[in-house]
Amino acid sequence: LCAVRYTGVAGAPFRQEQHRRTLPPGEEETVTMAVTFAEYQPHVGDQDALKLTAAGAVKETGQVVAKELRVRLHTPELTLTLLAPAVVGQETPIQVVFQNPLPEALTGTTLRMEGAGIACPKPVSL
């Protein structure tokens, strides 16, 4: 398991597991792996993905099979609600809702709104 930058460049693997199984003919087996936020957070940036590579080898024949999966980390949505009618030249109250999906508090965050008719965006520290 490693992080992949938005440019496609993969970082160094930060987790590896090895499993040996004997699999009877026609059978299948599932191997699961849970990856916590605390484990992958130090390795990913704002636009990164996680890349999981699984490879298997048949001991008797030497045949190798491999599969790669990229998991894009989704940014949580902001919900914007207009709380009063928008009138040209007047302030308009807007409610912004964001739910922190992480298992730790967010600190040093700033909300900045931009758009048509907003002359000077004012960042709001949260």
From TrEMBL:
UniProt-listed Enzyme Commission number(s): 2.3.2.13
Top-level taxon: Eukaryota
Residue stretches making up the Transglutaminase C-terminal domain: 3-67
Enzymatic class: transferase
Keyword Transcription in record: no
This protein's record includes keyword Isomerase: no
Record's protein name: protein-glutamine gamma-glutamyltransferase
One GO molecular-function entry: protein-glutamine gamma-glutamyltransferase activity
Keywords from the UniProt entry: Acyltransferase, Transferase
Matching Gene3D superfamilies: Immunoglobulins
